[in-house]
């Protein structure tokens, strides 16, 4: 197994850690979730860079990398829904989950035809925006834990999540055209 693929698998482990830390609740757990999420973002960039640089891009990586991203994004958003002050719209998270399930189905169909459907430009943009938006929301949670979050900061979680849902649905069309 290549180093890039190991980093992808590490991202899955980190995603589970982020989820568990957010479900455990409390300032230290939230700080741990933020740190793990940040490391996961770095591994997302690093695994792709290493695979291209070392010439080790693989069908496994093309499929596993977006799955690791989905686990990280969906798991974190589901755990963040518990924080009532953020007012994260459940419908937006639901649309993100629906999009990811549909893309998974499209990938299975492509795989049955001997094709590997890797992430395209729109899917990558969607992922970057989602990861940054969620990192901002996690930072707001840390500020809330320290009682320094302003009301507008707490309210930012909802539009950030809606933005993630809009981008998720927009990038879906790109995959369906493929």
Which outline best applies?
A: globular
The portion of residues assigned to helices is over 70%
What kind of oligomer do you see? single chain
- Could you give the distance between the termini? 29 Å
Q: In what range is the share of β-strand residues?
A: under 5%
- Show unreliable segments: none
In N-to-C order, the SSE pattern is HHHHHHH
Structural class: mainly alpha
Number of strands: 0
Overall mean pLDDT stands at 92
Can I get a quick summary?
This protein is mostly helical and 178 residues long.
List keywords for this structure.
178 residues, globular, mainly alpha
Question: Can you characterise this structure?
Answer:
The protein is built from seven helices and no strands.
Topology of helices and strands:
Layout (H helix, E strand, L loop, with lengths): L2 H22 L2 H28 L4 H22 L9 H23 L8 H25 L5 H5 L1 H21 L1
């Amino acid at each position: 197994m290549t180093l890039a693929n190991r980093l992808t698998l590490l991202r899955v482990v980190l995603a589970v850690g982020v989820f568990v830390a957010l479900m455990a609740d409390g300032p230290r757990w939230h700080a741990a979730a933020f740190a793990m999420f940040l490391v996961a973002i770095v591994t997302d960039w690093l695994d792709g860079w290493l695979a291209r640089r070392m010439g080790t891009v693989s069908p496994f990586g093309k499929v596993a990398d977006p799955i690791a991203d989905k686990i990280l994004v969906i798991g974190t958003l589901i755990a963040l829904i518990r924080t009532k002050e953020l007012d994260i719209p459940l419908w937006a998270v639901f649309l993100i989950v629906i999009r990811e399930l549909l893309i998974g189905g499209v990938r299975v169909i492509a795989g049955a035809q001997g094709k590997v459907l890797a992430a395209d430009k729109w899917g990558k943009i969607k992922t970057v925006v989602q990861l940054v938006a969620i990192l901002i929301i996690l930072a707001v949670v840390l500020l809330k834990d320290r009682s320094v979050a302003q009301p507008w900061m707490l309210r930012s979680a909802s539009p950030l999540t809606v933005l993630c849902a809009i981008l998720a649905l927009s990038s879906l069309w790109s995959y369906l055209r493929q």
